[in-house]
Amino acid sequence: MSAAVLTAAPPRPAHRDPQVLRWLGAYTASTVGDSVYYLALSWAAVSSGSPAQAGLVMAVSAVPRALLLLFGGVIADRLGPRRVVLASDTARCLMTLGLAAVLLATSPGLWLLAAAALVFGAVDAVFLPAVGALPPRIAARDQLARVRGLRGLAYRMGSVLGAPLGGLAVATGGPASAFGAAGALFALSLPLLCALRLRPLPTGEKPPTGEKGEKADGPVLRDLADGLRHLRGHRVLGPLMITILLADLGFVGPLNVGLALLAEQRGWGAPGIGWLLAGFGAGAGAASLLLAVRGRLPRAGTTLGWTMVLGAVAVAALAFAPRLPVAVAVAVAVGLLAGVSGALCHALVQTECDPAYLGRVSAVSSLGSLGLAPLGMPLTGAAAGLWGTGPVFVAGAAVCALSGAFALTVPSLRRAELPR
Q1: What is the H or E stretch that residue 315 is in?
Q2: Contact 239/364 with Cβ under 8 angstroms?
Q3: Chain segment 70-120, per-residue pLDDT in tens
Q4: Contact assessment for residue 301 and residue 415, using Cβ atoms and an 8 Å cutoff
Q5: Distances (CA, A) of 335 to 92, 152, 174, 250
Q6: How many alpha carbons lie under 13 Å from residue 284 in its C-beta half-sphere?
Q7: Sign for the pseudo-dihedral over CA of 270, 370, 199, 231
Q8: Tell me, what DSSP letter sits at residue 130?
Q9: Residues 6+ positions from 101 with CB-CB distance below 8 Å
Q10: What are the residues whose beta carbons fall under 8 Å from the beta carbon of 113, sequence distance 6 or more?
Q11: b/e string for 43-57 if b means 16 or more Cβ within 10 A?
């Protein structure tokens, strides 16, 4: 045999990796299913009760998600992210198909819809940390930023396709048909998830307990406390969690509640809300595409901080946009800057975190946007009623700017880089 040196083939780019494409297909199907499910739930709730009761049903799922999200991270780390995502999508598939069958047979009351929303929120609390922990087990570290960009594109596609698909299903067969379509989409993700093969971890890194073939035992609270200690002692992850939480608290309320109030106040009506949301979505989609194509951005920590500060300026500028075209252009800028900073945050989480803690860390990073911030939306609406829409945008922008300034003043976070 010759003395030629054999070298390992370089890892495939994420957009050409069959493993990543299977995960992306499953995630896209699941995201579209989410959109169809929520549209079906809102329509069924409106058809069965008053608008206020329907709003309560829609808000119910946020409660178990907020309360159980951190424990969902423990479960993802104990059992392994692939196993948890597969079980979660199976549960969502069976639940939505069961709701479709019930609606075909009878007209259930609001109590059944509220119970379904509670169960769906509890399953989400397990599903979301596992989704965040899965990419490092299917892609090389230097491809994780690109995977995050692909995930952002899939999420935007799910939002764009889900609403019209759900509306078509409701128009043709009522809420039962829409729930059935959501269940079919969740079912579509299952064979793709089953076909995933996890990458071996680098030497010295320990996998989640459930993936080692060992029994996952011991108190759940102990595991949760262990994950929080890991965060607190990490030179990048600890400051990064504070940055993400501040950004979510400043961003979610004004953008979800404030845009509707701004459109109503300026007389732009429902089409105005649609244009503003489309502008924001276009900017966020462009940010995801940028990261998916480039694979990484240089000086990730510094770029993260400055895009948050500039994004805060754009959020405040929305309150002073005199005409709809100007407001849409500002919304595009907000989406682009928030998309870049958000993608960098989550890419750094996945590259900096020990895989054994990634479910718990992903849960903490999602707690602000998916757990705490939605519960604060009524406060945002009340504040807008007392002081007007402008101060709400300015206050949210100030919190976002504080988040970016904090990232820039912490040396370990400012110097953080994505792997090449």
Answers
A1: helix 300-318
A2: no
A3: 899 999 998 889 999 999 999 999 999 999 999 888 877 788 888 999 999
A4: yes
A5: 30, 12, 34, 14
A6: 22
A7: positive
A8: H
A9: 176
A10: 41, 44, 45, 48, 57
A11: bbbbebbeeeebeeb
Cβ(377)–Cβ(248) below 8 Å: no
Structure tokens at 110: 């609001």
Amino acid found at 112 = L
Residues whose CB falls within 8 Å of the CB of residue 26, separated by 6 or more in sequence, listed in order: 85, 89, 188, 189, 190, 192, 193, 196
141 burial class (0-12, 13-18, 19+ CB within 10 angstroms)? middle
Q: Which residue in this structure is represented by tokens 């649609």?
A: 274
Measured in whole angstroms, the distance separating CA 269 from the mean position of its chain's CA atoms is 28
Q: Are 168 and 359 in contact (CB under 8 A)?
A: no
8 A C-beta contact, residue 154 and residue 27:
yes
State how far the alpha carbon of 37 is from the alpha carbons of 58, 102, 208, 367, in Å.
11, 15, 31, 22
* pLDDT per residue as tens digits for the range 369-418: 776 666 666 677 777 777 777 888 888 899 899 999 999 999 999 999 88
Q: Quick check: 373 and 248 in contact, CB under 8 A? A: yes
Q: Rounded distance, CA 351 to CA 354, Å?
A: 8
- Helix (H) / strand (E) containing 196: none
3-state secondary structure of 144: helix
Is the whole model's pTM more than 0.85, yes or no? no
Categorise residue 344: left if φ over 0, alpha if ψ from -120 to 50, beta otherwise. alpha
In order, the DSSP letters of 252-290 are HHIIIIIHHHHHHHHT-HHHHHHHHHHHHHHHHHHHHHH
Structure-token match 């895989």, residue found: 355
CA atoms of 265 and 288, how far apart (whole Å): 31
Q: Name the residue among 32, 34, 127 with its Cα closest to residue 88.
A: 127
313 vs 301: CA distance, rounded Å: 19
Nearest-angstrom CA–CA distance, 70 and 128: 10
**Which tokens in the block code for residue 237?**
């992850």
